Amino acid sequence: MGLLDGGVAALFGEVFGEVFLPALVYGGSAAVTYDNKGTLRRNAPAARGCRIQVDSRTERWRAEPGFTAADVRVIILAASLEGTVEAGNIVEPLGGPYAGARFRLAAPIDRDPAGAGFTARGVQERTTGG
Fold first, then answer.
1. What is the pLDDT of residue 3?
2. Is residue 130 in some structural domain?
3. Which residue range is the domain that position 100 belongs to?
4. Are 97 and 36 in contact (CB under 8 A)?
5. Given its phi and psi angles, is residue 97 left (phi above 0), alpha (psi -120 to 50 degrees) or beta?
6. Which of 1, 17, 82, 112 could serve as a FRET partner for 118 with CA atoms 20 to 30 Å apart?
7. What CATH number is associated with residue 59?
C-alpha cells in the first residue's frame, strides 16, 4: 500500500489511534427486514465504534446560522471507522471530558486530502432530565 492509495490514512490511524478517544457513531442506513408474519420492520442501524477528538470550533462555523456556544469540532479518525459519516449521525464519546455527551454531526463534513479523518461540527444533543 502506497501513500497515495490509503497509506497516509493507515499511518495516521496507527500513529494517532491511542491519542483519539473511543466513541460510538449512530446513524446511517436502517436495515429493512420482514417478520414471520410478513410485516415490514425498519431496524435502527447498529452503533459503530471509532476514535474521535473533540476540539474547539472553527471561525467558519461561528459565522454559520444556528451556531451555538455549545457546538464543538469533532474529528473522527477514518482508519477507526467502518464506512463514512454524514450529517445527522450522532457521535458519543466514551471517554474524556465529553464522555456520555451526544453530538449530532452538522454539514459540512470535511475529509482531509490524505483521507485520514472526517471533521464536522458537533451540535450537542439536549438531554431530558427526570
1. 47
2. no
3. 3-124
4. no
5. alpha
6. 1
7. 2.40.10.270
